[in-house]
Specification:
By secondary structure, the protein is an alpha/beta fold. Helices cover about 35% and strands about 20% of the residues. β9 and β10 form a beta hairpin.
C-alpha cells in the first residue's frame, strides 16, 4: 500500500513537471485566436503563385507555421455555408444541419436562406429590414465553447462580406457578427447581437472606403504580360461582372461611386475592406487585451466571387492572390506589433475549393461540361409524367439534391422504388451524370467508400433532398461559363490548413486531415471542451509538439 502511494506520488510529480514544462514554453492560452477562412481557396494556391508572393504573407505562413497539406472536406456538397459551419463546429451537415447556402424547406414549402431569420432586424441599415442569425445551425461552435469555458468573458467576433461567413463561425453566443450590406455599402449586424452598431463601426462606415477604392479602379499589380500562370486575359468561358463589356483589365470602377456597393465584392478591394474592418473590430472591442482569450473569425468572400466569375485560371484570380498575399503580410505585421508574435494563434483554411472552368478543361482536351437543374427537372418530370401520369413530381432541385412531391406521387403508386427506377434511368441518360442515389439508402449504394462517406456526412434527414446527384469528374451543375464548386472531387474538397503563432512549431504533415479536425484541435490546444457535435480527430502533430 505504501509502495503504491509512493508510485502515485512520483507519477503525480512527473506529470506536474511535464505539464509545467509544456506550459512554461508559452502562456497557458493565447491572447487572441484569429481564424481566417479564404472563400474558395484551393490548397494549391498556397504554392501556385509563390514566385511573386512576398516573404511576409503565404510564404511566411509556410515557413513559420505548421501546414496540414492534405486537408480535405469530410462531406459533400462542398459549399460556403456548410464549410464555415463545419470548420467551427467540427461537425458535418448531417449533424449541424447547414446543408447549403439555402435549401428547400418541406414544412414551409419555400426555399430558406441558411442565416435568414424573420425574428430579428438588420442593425445599421437606414430602413427596417429582416435580419440574420445562426439559428439554423443545430450545433455549438468552438467560439461558443470558448465563451462557455470562460463563463462568457471571452469576446468572439465574426467579420466577412457575406453574412453567412461571419455569422456561422461567430456562433450562437457571439459578442458580435458583422457583414456588408451591399445596398448601402455599410457593415451591418442584427438585433440577434445588438440594438445599435458600436460607435467605432459607425465611424468606419462613415469613412466610405468603398468609394475610395472605386476611385482607384482595378488594374493588375504587375504588367499584364507577366501573368504567365494564367490564360490570356480575355477568354470566352469567363463571365463578366458589374456591367463590363469584356472580362479584361484595366477596370474602371468610378461609375459605381455612391451606388452599387455590391461591386466591391467582385474585386480584390473586398479583401482590403475586410482586413480594414477586422482591424477596426480588434481595436473597437479591444480584443486580445483582457484576462482571457478572445476570438476573431474573419472570412474573405472576394476570392469566391472572383473565382465564380472569371475562373481559377484567370489573370483576375492570379492578381487577387498576389494582392491578398501582400495584405496578409501587412496583417501579420499588425498582429505581431499588437500582440507579440507568440501571443496570437492564427490559422488559415477554406470553406471549399473550386473546379477549373468547363471551358478551360475542354479547350485543353479534358472531359468536362455543365448540366443545369432545369434540364434535370425536365428529364424527371417528363419520365414520371409519361410513365405514371403525375404532373408536378419535383418540388425543388437544390445543392445537387432532388426534393420529390411525395404527396402527389403516393396517390398514384404503392411502391416508391418504382419512382426511383424511373428517375435513375432518366437521369443516367443525361451527359455528365455519373449516378443518382436515393438519399435514405446511401450506405447500400454501389459507389466508392469515399464518395459514399462524404454524401452520407452531407445528408440531413430533415433538410436534405430525396435523391443525390453525382456528377462525372470536372462536370458542374449550372453554367459552363466561369467556375463553381459543390462536388466531392478533390478540386472542391482539398483545402489549405496552416497554423501559426502561439505554441506552433514550424513543420508540415501529409497525413490526411479532415476539415472537422480544426475545432477539436483548437479545443485541445486551449484545454476547453470541444463542440458537442464535433466528429473530427485532433491533429496531434501540433497539440503535442
Ligand atoms: Zn462559391
Amino acid at each position: 500500500m505504501l509502495k503504491l502511494k509512493f508510485y502515485l506520488a512520483v507519477a503525480a510529480l512527473l506529470s506536474a513537471v511535464y505539464l509545467n514544462g509544456q506550459y512554461n514554453r508559452a502562456p497557458f492560452r493565447p491572447k487572441i485566436i484569429v481564424g481566417m477562412v479564404v472563400d474558395q481557396m484551393r490548397w494549391d494556391y498556397l504554392y501556385k503563385f509563390q514566385d511573386r508572393y512576398t516573404e511576409g504573407g503565404f510564404k511566411r505562413l509556410i515557413r513559420e507555421g505548421f501546414s496540414c497539406e492534405n486537408t480535405h472536406i469530410d462531406y459533400a456538397p462542398t459549399i460556403t455555408a456548410c464549410g464555415h459551419t463545419s470548420v467551427y463546429t467540427g461537425s458535418v451537415p448531417a449533424i449541424h444541419g447547414i446543408i447549403g447556402n439555402s435549401w428547400y424547406d418541406r414544412i414551409s414549402g419555400n426555399t430558406v436562406g441558411c442565416v435568414d431569420d424573420n425574428k430579428v432586424q438588420l442593425v445599421g441599415s437606414s430602413a427596417s429590414r429582416t435580419g440574420q442569425s445562426p439559428h439554423r445551425n443545430l450545433a455549438t461552435t468552438i467560439t461558443d465553447q470558448l465563451r462557455i469555458a470562460t463563463n462568457f468573458q471571452s469576446k468572439t467576433v465574426g467579420v466577412a462580406i457575406k453574412d453567412r461567413a461571419s455569422i456561422l463561425p461567430a456562433g450562437h453566443t457571439a459578442t458580435a457578427a458583422f457583414w456588408l450590406d451591399s445596398e448601402e455599402g455599410n457593415f451591418v449586424s442584427s438585433t440577434f447581437y445588438m440594438d445599435r452598431l458600436p460607435d467605432w463601426a459607425v465611424k468606419f462606415n462613415r469613412s466610405k472606403r468603398i468609394d475610395a477604392y472605386y476611385k482607384k479602379g482595378w488594374n493588375t499589380l504587375f504588367p499584364l504580360s507577366s501573368y504567365v500562370l494564367s490564360t490570356a486575359d480575355d477568354k470566352a468561358y469567363e463571365n463578366t461582372a458589374n456591367g463590363e463589356a469584356k472580362p479584361v483589365f484595366p477596370r474602371k470602377l468610378s461609375q459605381f461611386i455612391g451606388k452599387n456597393y455590391g461591386a466591391v465584392k467582385n474585386t480584390p478591394y473586398g479583401n482590403t475592406l475586410t482586413f480594414e474592418f477586422a482591424k477596426a473590430a480588434i481595436e473597437g472591442y479591444n480584443l486580445g487585451r483582457g484576462k482571457v482569450t478572445d476570438f476573431l473569425a474573419v472570412s474573405f468572400s472576394s476570392p469566391d466571387a472572383i473565382g465564380h466569375i472569371y475562373g481559377p485560371n484567370s489573370v483576375e484570380m492570379e492578381d487577387n492572390y498576389l494582392r491578398l498575399d501582400r495584405e496578409l503580410s501587412q496583417f501579420f505585421e499588425y498582429l505581431d506589433k499588437k500582440f507579440g508574435k507568440d501571443n496570437y494563434l492564427y490559422f488559415l483554411t477554406a470553406d471549399h475549393g473550386v473546379s477549373e472552368s468547363p471551358g478551360f478543361f475542354l479547350e485543353n482536351r479534358m472531359p468536362s461540361g455543365a448540366v443545369s437543374g432545369k434540364e434535370l427537372n425536365q428529364a424527371i418530370t417528363t419520365a414520371l409524367q409519361e410513365q405514371l401520369g403525375i404532373p408536378d413530381p419535383v418540388l425543388a432541385i437544390a445543392n445537387s439534391q432532388i426534393y420529390m412531391n411525395w404527396e402527389a406521387l403516393d396517390k398514384k403508386i404503392t411502391d416508391r422504388r418504382r419512382v426511383t427506377d424511373i428517375i435513375v434511368s432518366a437521369l443516367r441518360k443525361l451527359p455528365g451524370i455519373a449516378d443518382v442515389l436515393p438519399s435514405e439508402t446511401l450506405s447500400a449504394a454501389s459507389v466508392p467508400e469515399l464518395t459514399k462517406r462524404m454524401l452520407i456526412n452531407g445528408y440531413n434527414a430533415k433538410r436534405s433532398g430525396d435523391y443525390m446527384i453525382v456528377l462525372q469528374p470536372a462536370w458542374v451543375m449550372g453554367s459552363a461559363k466561369g467556375a463553381t464548386h459543390g462536388t466531392w472531387y478533390t478540386y472542391d474538397a482539398h483545402i489549405p490548413l496552416v497554423w501559426m503563432g502561439w505554441r506552433i512549431q514550424p513543420g508540415y504533415t501529409n497525413k490526411p486531415v479532415g476539415m472537422t479536425a480544426i475545432a477539436p484541435t483548437l479545443a485541445a490546444l486551449l484545454h476547453i471542451q470541444a463542440p458537442g457535435a464535433s466528429v473530427g480527430e485532433v491533429i496531434t502533430e501540433i497539440t503535442v509538439p
